[in-house]
């Protein structure tokens, strides 16, 4: 299914409910490790469930749900 997006964008710029592939996570090593343990790493499929600027973002990754703050979500790049 085509999303209308071409190239890499921040997770926060991707439409809610659409599936995306994580390309890069530009956070510190500890945060990357935590996200990886929860199922979010380059190559994984994710979907934004809800979130607004300045608030937390709820992300579906595999069978789990991950909550991150807005600033952190802006450092996750998807296509």
Give the DSSP E fraction (strand runs of 2 or more residues).
35-45%
**Total strand count, please?**
6
Poorly predicted ranges: none
**Helix coverage percent of residues?**
10-25%
Instruction: Give the termini separation.
Output: 13 Å
Q: What characteristic shape results from the CA principal axes?
A: globular
- Elements, N to C (H/E): EEHEEEHE
Largest sheet: 6 strands, antiparallel
Rg over alpha carbons: 11 Å
Structural class: alpha+beta
Tell me, rounded to a whole number, the average pLDDT. Answer: 90
Strand order of the largest sheet: 1-6-2-3-4-5
Describe this structure in words.
This protein has 79 residues and is α+β, with helices and mostly antiparallel strands. Helix content is 16%, strand content 39%. It has two helices and six strands; from the N terminus they run E-E-H-E-E-E-H-E. The protein has helices spanning 29-37, 70-73; strands at residues 9-10, 19-25, 45-51, 56-61, 64-69, 76-78. Strands 1-6-2-3-4-5 form a six-stranded antiparallel β-sheet. The radius of gyration is 11 Å and the shape is globular. The two termini are 13 Å apart. The mean pLDDT is 90.
Secondary structure layout:
Layout: E1 9-10, E2 19-25, H1 29-37, E3 45-51, E4 56-61, E5 64-69, H2 70-73, E6 76-78
Antiparallel strand pairs: 1-6, 2-3, 2-6, 3-4, 4-5
């Amino acid at each position: 299914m085509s999303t209308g997006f071409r190239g890499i964008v921040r997770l926060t710029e991707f439409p809610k409910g659409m599936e995306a592939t994580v390309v890069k996570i530009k956070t510190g090593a500890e945060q990357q490790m935590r996200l990886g343990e929860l199922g979010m790493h380059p190559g994984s499929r994710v979907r934004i469930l809800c979130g607004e600027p300045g608030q937390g973002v709820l992300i579906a990754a595999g069978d789990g749900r991950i909550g991150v703050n807005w600033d952190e979500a802006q450092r996750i790049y998807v296509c």
